[in-house]
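Allow me, if you will, to draw on your knowledge of protein folds for a short while. I have a record of one protein: its chain in single-letter code and its fold written as discrete structure tokens. Kindly check, if you would, that the fold set down in the tokens agrees with what the sequence suggests. Thank you for your consideration; the sequence and its tokens are set out here:
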Amino acid sequence: MAKIKVTKNGPYLVSGSLPINEEKIEYDDFGVPRKTVVTKKYPQSESAALCRCGHSQNKPFCDGTHAKINFDGTETADVDEKYENEAEIINGPDLDLKDVPHLCAGLGFCHRGEGTWTSTENSDDPESKKVAVESACACAAGRLTAVDKKTGKNIEPKLEPSIGVLENGPLLVKGGIPVESAGGKTYEVRNRCTLCRCGESENKPFCDGSHQY
């Protein structure tokens, strides 16, 4: 079974022949992040160890540096947290928006147009609705989720299981890949989440945008 195992003060152990790709952000005409695109595909293998401390000389792969620098990779995220229980609801005429702020990875996909929140509040306008859905679905961390007002169902992009290594950013975990803590418990399986690879997040193993600073 494909999964990502967080090791104690060490790397992420990936199993199950998951595709691992380098990705970069593609911007719109106003310089706002729009989506990510694959720039390189690594040879697929049954297993891999991905750097979590941010100091490997063989990124994105681990080279053992975490042991030399005494990396403290203590997990601080709540392994029992459920997205639906934590989400704030922003109401709009045609869409609602679920928002869990502390999951933010600071990637900026929500800044398109009026911003995902205002676009949701103006979702009776077709263009605003389109932008709200697209920008919420582009939120790689899964902080934001657009909700169809009529059906009450979450609007999620269809993502094949894979790991994106974002240029100067986190690991993009897509398609419902289980992430297991060093203690053996599995975090809530989600379609989209981001894992820290700079070693500085205050919400380990997840990214909190600390790589930007």
Q: What stands out?
A: The helical segments are 65-68, 83-86, 116-121, 126-138. The first strand starts at residue 3 and ends at 6. Residues 83-155 form one domain. The chain has a mean pLDDT of 97.
